Amino acid sequence: MDSALAVHRLHFAFTITFHYLFPQLTMGLALLIVILKTVALRTGNPAYDQAARFWVKIFAINFAMGVVTGIPMEFQFGTNWAQFSKNAGGVVGQTLAMEGVFSFFLESSFLGLFVYGEKYLSPRLHWVTAFLVFVGSWLSGFFIIATDAWMQHPTGYKIGAGDQILLDSFLGLLLNPWILWQYLHNMIAAVVTASFVMASVGAYYQLAGKCADHARIFLRTGVVAGTIAVLAMMFPTGDGQGRMVADHQPVTLAAMEGLFDTSQGAPIAILGQPDTEAMKLDNPLLVPQALSFLTYRRWGAVVKGLKDFPRDVWPDNIPLLYYSYHIMVGIGTFLIALMLLSIWSLWRGRLHQSRPLLWALMLALPFPYIATTAGWMTAELGRQPWLIYGLMRTSAGVSPLVSAANGLFTLIGFMGLYLILGILFLFLVHREIEHGPVPAADSMGGTK
Amino acid sequence: MIATIWFCLVAIMIAGYVVLDGFDLGAGIVHLFVARTDRERRQVLQSIGPVWDGNEVWLIAGGGTLYFAFPALYSAAFSGFYLALMMVLWLLILRGISIELRSHIESPLWQPFWDLIFGGSSALLAVLFGAALGNVIRGVPLDANGFFFLPLWTNFQPDTEAGIVDWFTLLTGLAAFVALTMHGCCWVASRTEGDLRQRARALGLKTWWAVLALTALITFFSFHLQPHLETQFSAHPWGYVFPLLGLAGLAGMRFFSSQQRDTAAFLSSCLYLTGMLTSAAFGVFPYVLPSNIAPEAGLTIFNSSAAPYGLYIGLAWWIPGMLLAAGYSTFVYRRLPAKVT
Predict the structure, then answer these.
(1) Quick check: A441 pLDDT over 70?
(2) H helix or E strand, kind and range, residue B299
(3) What is the ipTM of this complex?
(4) End-to-end CA distance of chain B
(5) Which residues does chain B have within 8 Å of residue A97's beta carbon, measured at their own beta carbons?
């Protein structure tokens, strides 16, 4: 930990990981709230309005956490990654500035009306504010993914004097082929998180025997949206994203899979520990030929192994990358199975009585968060040793004059502050859940 | 030419941030003094509740705009003022949650605790933003690669060994603190009624003298420490229009506030802040971050801007984007009740 590079990497990794716990819920929840409010408008069923109102409260706490932990992300491009920003700011600055101009103004303008305005807006106008907050948050996701996609697979640039990376084609930047699958995969992951959170709270109410009407709404909405989302998570978006990696970052694919030897009919490792010294996978549990098929749609296709890539382009933390990827896929598989069982049971009208399934749904709450975090670790560790894939190494992008000691000082500061934020967040969300959705008459007077 | 346009646009965004977030920072500074009861503090918070988040977006969008238009400036300034900016981030976090979490629990311990955090973080942010402006005027020790790193403080002298805080930047920090205090008083007075309004107006009028005195002091020392200001103003005397606007705003604030016309006084305070910031921007132009060791090492709009293609493309989305944003803001501000009760 005495190297400035390691400190700055950990600084960004820690702050982004904590930050993204909140937007993944708000982006998904914004969509689910729009759905709840649409049903309420169409059927006139007040329970759906109460359900939406309850989730708006959870949304507001998460949104506030997302905003305050989001500001440090933009700043850190300059504070900790100054050389990167100096060389590539003319390109990535475009999408980051567009996020501010197009989505943050939209979101923040209507958020106040969305959270506090139900009292003095017509139901239709209030629906519009919910919809605009949803659009704003999904646009924000787009610009951030476009920025990351450019770092994963740079397009629309040219190299100028003094290693400056210059924007050459604005459309090339925004139509980067990497964006499509990464954006869809990520946004659907947000819907998965929100669906599981909603179903989990519904299962808790059902098991605890409280708020019966709302428990059913939460379970039904969460399980239906969740089933669609987990399936889309795997195919086509996860598959599309995987094939992007295979096409443009083949060494990353080999590292994710723990594939050391180039092989025809390459297997997929379900379990195993990659040993980068001996260059082999210990204790492997393999599915023969599966990797070749998933990557190239042919059982006998050749997949290049790590040994056939120069060591200086290997991702620099292969075990962590390998585990992140396997945790994402493993949990993803579990989430798919759980949702399929739940929707089957829901369809048969038995979900509300099925205690084992309700327990499983309730306890599944942390897993989509873990899978999403592991997925992002896969993407970002997989990009190493590059900051901009093939163009700039991570070691070249760090702020030249910010020492390890100064970086560690502020990293510790963030850790302390975020610990407090995390405790406050859990405490407040717990209170809201215990309080539960209440009939309209009570909640109207209570809000500020 | 295109770099000059972006210099003006970034200056507008920063001025927009200071004027808008300035009033809710100011409201945070003064609420401990002018709002005596929980009900009055609630009124102050309600007056900024629906808009403070949008005001802070000006910082994010302004930062993003600075990043893409002047990447060399963004990277040099943000890494050079590293420690101060990290503290700005911590304060913004604490302040944001203090506003959002205060209303969640009814308890005689919970609200006063967050009120204190809200007031303290608002006050420190005002001082830090003012000190940042002071650093830009004084200049920083840029190296051959266009980077620098300043410790928080060294010997408190505004010389080549200076840290982020020296007596001059401390003075500009104090000036920002009193200016935003006055601005916050004007906002609270224009949005509330009764005793709260009277107290806010009275505090605003008292603070006015401190604003006047500190404005005079920092103007004097700025010209003394940064010779480029005098060169620039004597080469382009039309630039005196900016400080004159600032003075007109300051005079107007006193005039209207004494007549109990609080909205006009608030708008005058906005004019004062805009005038002072544009004066500073005009005065250092074409520098954006001067050097305090060798003038030729300073960052200018020309050696720190992005390539022209990106800057022209930027105009094509920035202008419609900001018009849309102005549209939403107008919509939201119009829906706010004229007075909180």
Answers:
(1) no
(2) strand B299-300
(3) 0.94
(4) 49
(5) 61, 64-65, 67-69, 314, 318
